[in-house]
Write a structure and sequence with these properties.
Layout lengths: L8 H4 L8 E15 L2 E10 L9 E7 L2 E3 L3 E2 L2 E3 L5 H12 L21 E9 L14 E10 L3
Antiparallel strand pairs: 1-2, 1-5, 1-7, 2-3, 4-6, 7-8
């Protein structure tokens, strides 16, 4: 059975499931990829709220106007100024008291999220892209929205 290729371990852990709700999250990294013929930016967080979900890695997926350069970790992207990524990033940075100023849409400094604990709302994915229900055993969790920062 030489033609059988095992799944890499990280792909099996990529879709965990936790209880929906608000969690304190720590930024780990971002990556760019193409999904459904569209450029995507996946921003990865680790749950730092105490409980069963502590340490679980979850992603918030955004659309990108354009992808720049190589795809993968720390890949380049162009986020529109009215995009969810830009709006949530600016909201979090303003609530953190960071001097955000005006960033270029192709140089959004996502690494600044790493110096703060972000509050995010987590939800379960229950339907696929065609609105067909996903069986309960295959459902997974994602970060649905970044609300702000956790006070010290």
């Amino acid at each position: 059975m030489r033609n059988v290729i095992p799944f890499p371990e990280h792909e099996q852990e990529e879709y965990p499931r936790v209880e929906p709700g608000a969690y304190a999250l720590r930024f780990t990294h971002w990556e760019t990829k193409r999904r459904f013929n569209t450029g995507k930016v996946s921003v990865w967080f680790e749950v730092v709220s105490y409980g069963e979900a502590f340490g679980v890695r979850l992603a918030r997926h955004y659309n990108a106007k354009h992808l720049i350069g190589k795809l993968g970790k720390k890949g380049g992207f162009y986020a529109g100024k009215c995009s969810d990524l830009a709006r949530e990033f600016y909201t979090v940075m303003e609530l953190a008291g960071e001097p955000v100023g005006k960033f270029r849409p192709d140089r959004l400094p996502l690494h600044l999220l790493g110096s703060h604990v972000v509050v995010g709302v987590v939800r379960d994915v229950k339907h696929d892209s065609k609105r067909k229900p996903i069986p309960q055993a295959l459902q997974y969790s994602v970060v649905d929205e970044l609300k702000g920062i956790k006070p010290p």
